[in-house]
């Protein structure tokens, strides 16, 4: 992924297609030939020029705003030239081809942000926040991404890393004086330092877990027998008539997906075909897809028609849901159609399987169901201090926790300074992978390849 960064790259940085404005961005160490080729002069840094954009023969391609940002005071840390013209696809294509004629190379996805990272303008969490801000599905997610982009997450990681390095230096310095090592290991400073690191990690991990939920959310599959009201629940949760609802069993034969937000947390709702034995080939394929989605789901809502005869035993609930989920720990039984005459509220759960009463038709019980899903995910709320994060950050912090715990165990049992120092070194590497201090080209390639061209 990481290639020669001495060449000039160019890309359309506005969405392709017709629009009021289109922008071509160039970035590199030397843009003199592009100044001459497009403009005939070198623009003033951080000054907006209204200029014609020229061909090799001096003919006008378009006219618009020229912005020049001189290195290192730019997004990438290199010289940047932006040509802001009329947003027609033909005009933008001509300008981009002109840039390539002058010696630029078409930028790869995320290459501008990659150069910003390599030139120290952003760390890896901030680079990821750029993508998260673009992809934000809610106002809360956008605010969280901005906080990470501003460095709120990075500062907490850096502070923790500083404390870890200080403790590691203290340990390794003492190893150089073996005659003092026993006193050094038993003086209580290392134990207290490791305990403090553990507490800091726990607090940061809690915040990062919330931030990852804010960005990624959870997947929720709605399952059950035909005509239990699964599609009605999908429509009620989304607020739109996405799924066809009829009294005919087996109307839904494929998987329907919709994302909703609960206090900023994305819920990926998946409506599935009704679970039953059938000879219909198409419906059977739909049921197989439903079973695949159920296996992958973070949470499963098993819908039951509350107008049927049942009791609150697990066997009875599973029978009415159309499948045996008695051993699953991510299942909620949802009693639907509680608005029908004669229904008697149960207000009960059974062991590890909660039971929630709703009416997808009237909306009764839906707030309780949404709160329940928040609780299942462990999501609190998108508070003022919440920043965006990713699952890889959680993994890195968990690995750091393991290393710190191992170091503490070494201290309390073996009392070997070299082993403690090695655990602290591994913890430092795991923590540094979050911001990109220690990372691999494979990880960088995966991150930047998810960007759009022009960012």
In short:
The chain is α/β, with parallel strands linked by helices and 455 residues long. It has helices spanning 32-38, 89-101, 111-118, 124-135, 139-149, 152-175, 178-186, 189-216, 230-238, 281-296, 314-321, 366-377, 391-412, 417-435, 441-449, and strands at 9-12, 19-28, 49-54, 60-69, 79-87, 105-106, 218-224, 256-262, 265-271, 299-305, 331-336, 355-357.
General description of the model:
The chain is 45% helix and 17% strand. The chain is of the alpha/beta class and 455 residues long. The chain folds into three domains: 9-122, 2-Layer Sandwich (Gyrase A, domain 2), CATH 3.30.1360; 131-213 and 390-435, tRNA modification GTPase MnmE domain 2 (Four Helix Bundle (Hemerythrin (Met), subunit A), Up-down Bundle); 232-264 and 274-377, P-loop containing nucleotide triphosphate hydrolases (Rossmann fold), CATH 3.40.50. The strands form two sheets. Strands 3-4-5-2-1-6 form a six-stranded mixed beta sheet, covered by helices on one side. Strands 8-9-7-10-11-12 form a six-stranded mixed beta sheet, with helices on both faces. Helix 4 packs antiparallel against helix 5 (139-149), helix 6 packs antiparallel against helix 8 and helix 8 (189-216) packs antiparallel against helix 13. The chain is flat.
